[in-house]
Amino acid sequence: MTADADYKPGLEDVPAAKSAVSFLDGKKAVLEYRGIPVEVLARESSFEEVSWLLIKGSLPTQKELADFDAELRQRRAIHYRLKDLIRCMPADGHPMDALHASVAALGMFYPCPTVADPAKNWDATCRLLAALPTVVAAFARSRRGEEIPEPRADLDHAGNFYYLLFGKEPTPAVRRVLDACLILHAEHTMNASTFAARVTGSTLATPYQTIASAVGALSGPLHGGANEEALRQFDEIGGPGNVKPWLDAKRTADPKYKVMGIGHRVYKVKDARATVLQEIAEHMFAESSRPKAYETALELERVCAGIYGPKGIYPNVDFYSGVVYSAIGIPTDVFTPIFAIARTAGWLAHWHEQLVGNRIFRPEQVFTGTTDVRYVPLAERP
Ligand code: ACO
């Protein structure tokens, strides 16, 4: 039995796997995908190229990228009965729940019953990357009573997703912002959802079940769901002038009050991704047309730095992502599904890595219950 002294709540600092997918130094705000800084990739690369990099381990050749891109474009469409399923989902349901159910259903329409066949694994890898934007957009449109559009094979990954969501092509600037956001969210070492993917993958469950587990883990407000909460928080504050009284009131009511979009288990400085997202936001908004939510976020960051900075609590990726998504018209409850679309690349990279020399996860527990309890028949109980 594990001793209490060995127990680390939340498995903090406990290595759960060996991985070469990404590197994170939380004290220096360094995040690298296969050795390449995420800031460089966000500026120079595309989501398609980054997905290959994460999954295959190195940058693709020009031919590899062209072939991979074509494979993705071929797998964007979803079965008409999956569309029927999505149409039947409650319109007021959360898009993350719709995504969770749809990812599991994808595995029934495009079966990959065993993970022993590399060709089927690759097909599922491409399908999950390519079809997630389609199912996210399908629910976003059908819940408003709109037609579910067919994907466009002539657009890139980010452009096609925007088209599916809004029925029109993005401007080049908006397409670039969306692509950069997907790159920034594509991978982040051993976080809760990646761990969930590796645990499910370690049972040799299908890739669809593996990604569905990760989607479930990502949905919580302490993980991917924080971007929605962060934007709602800026709206609740109502403007930069209200930040200080708002925070004072929250901290008086609850001294442990958690400000959404700040703090991280690993980062003790500002998250590199938050810095890039803030640059994107600055670029999008001329000073005169900054949305109130962005002005509020800037002031909240300033005030929080004074209070929480000494504890190493600074903005994480979710602090500014919602402001950027909202500025390009994306509904608040679709922020986390976009995170999932992006993170699927990282989850799949970890799944492929897990399958090499796989060992099923089976941790220990510190037992805190009682033993040898007599079963009292119901008739003898009050
Ligand atoms: N606001 C205020 N105080 C905070 C915050 C916060 N957001 N985050 C941590 N703290 C404080 C805690 O109260 C605690 O203080 P104490 O030492 O006085 O008790 C200390 O910092 C350590 O906090 P923990 O909760 O133990 O830190 P942990 O590493 O477990 O949590 C987490 C990390 C869950 C991300 C946390 O910072 C949080 O809840 N943040 C808000 C939600 C959020 O933004 N999540 C997105 C994370 S990034 C991502 O998933 C993509």
Shape: globular
CATH H-level name of the largest domain... which superfamily?
Citrate Synthase, domain 1
Using DSSP, what is the number of strands? 3
Q: Enumerate how many helices there are, as a single number.
A: 16
Q: What is the alpha-carbon Rg in Å?
A: 22 Å
Q: What is the CATH architecture annotation of the largest domain?
A: Orthogonal Bundle
Largest sheet: 3 strands, antiparallel
Oligomer class? single chain
The small molecules bound here are:
acetyl coenzyme *A
What would you call the structural class? mainly alpha
Under CATH at level 1, the class of the largest domain stands as Mainly Alpha
User: How far is the first residue's CA from the last residue's CA?
Assistant: 35 Å
Q: Give the mean pLDDT.
A: 95
Strands of the biggest beta sheet: in what spatial order? Answer: 1-2-3
Count up the domains.
2
Low-confidence stretches: none
**Beta-strand residue fraction:** under 5%
Question: Would you summarize the structure shown here?
Answer:
Helix content is 54%, strand content 3%.
Structure description:
With 382 residues, the protein is mostly helical. It has two domains: 9-222 and 344-355, Citrate Synthase, domain 1; 226-328, Cytochrome p450-Terp, domain 2 (Orthogonal Bundle), CATH 1.10.230.10. It is 54% helix and 3% strand. It contains 16 helices and three strands. The chain has helices at 38-44, 47-56, 62-74, 80-87, 95-109, 118-142, 157-166, 172-184, 192-202, 207-218, 226-237, 243-253, 272-284, 292-308, 318-327, 335-355; strands at residues 22-25, 30-33, 36-37. Strands 1-2-3 form a three-stranded antiparallel sheet. Strand 2 (30-33) and strand 3 form a beta hairpin. Helix 2 (47-56) runs parallel beside helix 16, helix 5 (95-109) packs antiparallel against helix 10 and helix 7 (157-166) packs across helix 8. The longest helix is centred in the middle third of the chain and has 25 residues, at 118-142. The two termini are 35 Å apart. The model has no long low-confidence stretch (mean pLDDT 95). It binds acetyl coenzyme *A. Acetyl coenzyme *A (ACO) binds next to loops. Acetyl coenzyme *A is lined by residues 222-224, 226, 256, 258-265, 308, 311, 313, 316-318.
